[in-house]
Amino acid sequence: QVQLVESGGGLVQAGGSLRLSCLASGRTFSTYAMGWFRQAPGKEREFVAAITWSGNSTRYADSVKGRFTISRDNGRMAVYLQMTSLKPEDTAVYYCATPGRWYGNMEVDVERMEYWGKGTLVTVSS
After folding, report:
1. Which of 122, 9, 107 lies closest to 58, judged by CA?
2. What is the tens place of the pLDDT at every residue in 9-57?
3. Per-residue three-class SS string for the chain
């Protein structure tokens, strides 16, 4: 089992940047693919970015491609989301999640994620 805690959210102006962090507990973190999801007010939770357990492959939603970068540090048991050129439509609660399978593939479906953090709020003002 793994516990996930996000941090780094806040209020930023459009065009600005933020870096989200997700710290994990649990000895199997380094074997898990990880993902970031977000949920805007009144909308369903959606995929943002994913990274393999080794960190050598990533995947992004079209809406954030070229602006967001996911990375991980298995030694620190952490996954990050660097967000640049932020837009008001990026406003949401951002969640860190994992399918929780050893050496499993990246997942983009909310339903396939087993463990979730409680989220961190990102607000982008225009």
Report:
1. 107
2. 999 999 999 999 999 998 889 999 999 999 999 999 999 999 999 999 9
3. CCEEEEECCEEEECCCCEEEEEEEECCCHHHCCEEEEEECCCCCCEEEEEECCCCCCEEECCCCCCCEEEEEECCCCEEEEEECCCCHHHCEEEEEEECCCCCCCCCCCHHHCCEECCCEEEEEEC
Of 30, 31, 34, which Cα lies nearest the Cα of 58?
34
Distances in Å between the Cα of 69 and the Cα atoms of 27, 42, 60 are 25, 26, 8
CA distances from 54 to 16, 36, 106 (A): 29, 16, 11
